[in-house]
Design goal:
The complex is a heterodimer of chains A (about 180) and B (about 180).
Chain A (H helix, E strand, L loop, with lengths): L4 H23 L13 H6 L8 E11 L2 E7 L2 E8 L10 E10 L2 E10 L1 H25 E4 L4 E4 L6 H4 L2 H4 L7
Parallel strand pairs in A: 3-5
Antiparallel strand pairs in A: 1-2, 1-4, 2-3, 4-5, 6-7
Chain B lengths: L16 H16 L7 H10 L14 H8 L11 H13 L6 H19 L33 H27 L1
Helix pairs in contact in B: 1-2, 1-5, 1-6, 2-5, 4-5
The chains are: A alpha+beta (about 180), B mainly alpha (about 180).
Chain lengths: ~180, ~180
């Protein structure tokens, strides 16, 4: 059944339906600190009074360093949150991630946390982009797409880097049965 | 206590993709010394598998809140980083393979994704917990030793060094086997 283009489309739609169930299900997970699931920005940002005194997890970009204020993203839009009792010394624009106690609306007492410098974020994105290019190149060298049946086929003989630059021919399809 | 909104866990920060690709390459290449069918083509699929949990990055293009506005229900892309999400993503990859490649291809795709999840399980997080490997069966979030941050270059340097070493050993083995024959 999954050998034809229609069969594959059906199979993929079925699996995407699985995601259509999983994504909302994940978003509605009950808070369960015993299993490591803590309320985050959305929960305590929306109904803070419900979580005052509870341990929460949060993170955001630093807006102000003294006192430490970060901007968190919630379903209701960005909100400012003050972090107190912390030894973190970030700069404006850095990202901080904190685990702590919500002591009042808009205030978290830090129990644990760390700073992610702005430069580190750019590093991660840049190097990840390179990884994507590398793997994409290898994929074109080693596999080919059969568009008529919507499937990937292994090339018996990998193509060279020079041939990779000729992508239209390298995606030819049925050459490697 | 049920909450009706997105719940962000610790999988957001992860070692950069290059480190994941190095790990997948090294593991697949070492296995290829024992498994003759594990050729370069399948090793590439293993490296592709290392990208699977990072499909969550789709949220940077279409944020959760926008989908929530559109659908009117709570929504989180973070399910892509869980065991259940990774399984579904891997199965999509399996369906897209030609029938004769599914068993071997699916195995290496899953292996690549698994190495990614394991590496993410070692990340530093504020709560000391990292990934939900068995969700949606259980909410259990694995404890993490907190070895590194995603934004540190050290994991990439170490895994890159290992990958180069493995590649070098492989070249030596290939040369050696050619000399013998």
């Amino acid at each position: 059944m999954l050998h034809t283009a229609n069969g594959r489309i059906f199979g993929i739609l079925l699996l995407l339906t699985g995601f259509a169930v999983l994504c909302p299900l994940y978003a509605q997970q009950p808070v369960n600190p015993e299993l490591g699931v803590y309320p985050d920005d959305d929960e305590f940002g929306e109904t803070p009074e419900q979580y005052i005194g509870d341990t929460v997890v949060t993170g955001g970009i630093v807006q102000q360093v003294s006192p430490l204020v970060i901007e968190i993203e919630t379903t209701q839009g960005p909100q400012e949150l003050m972090i107190v009792d912390t030894a973190l010394r970030p700069e404006v624009g850095d990202k901080v991630r904190v685990f702590g106690i919500l002591t009042a609306t808009g205030t978290v007492r830090s129990l644990n946390g760390f700073v992610v410098p702005r430069t580190g974020r750019w590093y991660a994105w840049g190097i990840s982009f390179l990884a994507g290019l590398w793997v994409l190149t290898r994929l074109i060298q080693h596999w080919t797409v059969d568009w008529t049946r919507i499937r990937f086929q292994r090339r018996e003989t990998p193509i060279s880097l020079r041939d990779v630059c000729r992508i239209p021919t390298s995606l030819g399809g049925n050459r490697d049965a | 206590m049920s909450v009706g909104s997105r719940l962000r866990l610790e999988g957001i920060e992860m070692p950069d993709l290059l480190a994941h690709v190095f790990i997948a390459y090294s593991v697949c290449r070492i296995l290829s010394w024992r498994l003759s069918w594990l050729t370069n083509q399948y090793i590439t699929l293993g490296m592709v598998g290392a990208f699977i949990p990072d499909l969550v990055k789709i949220k940077l293009v279409i944020p959760d809140w926008r989908v929530e506005q559109l659908l009117g229900v709570p929504f989180s892309w973070e399910s892509f980083t869980t065991g259940g999400g990774v399984l579904l993503s891997t199965l999509i990859g399996v369906v897209l393979l030609s029938a004769t490649e599914r068993r071997k291809g699916g195995t290496v795709l899953a292996l690549g994704a698994l190495t990614h999840l394991i590496a993410d399980s070692l990340l530093r997080t504020p709560t000391g917990r990292s990934t939900q490997l068995l969700w949606p069966i259980t909410q259990y979030t694995t404890p993490t030793p907190g070895l590194y941050l995603s934004t540190q270059p050290e994991p990439t340097i170490v895994t890159g060094g290992c990958a180069i070493l493995v590649w070098g050993i492989h070249q030596y083995r290939v040369k050696d086997s050619k000399a013998e024959s």
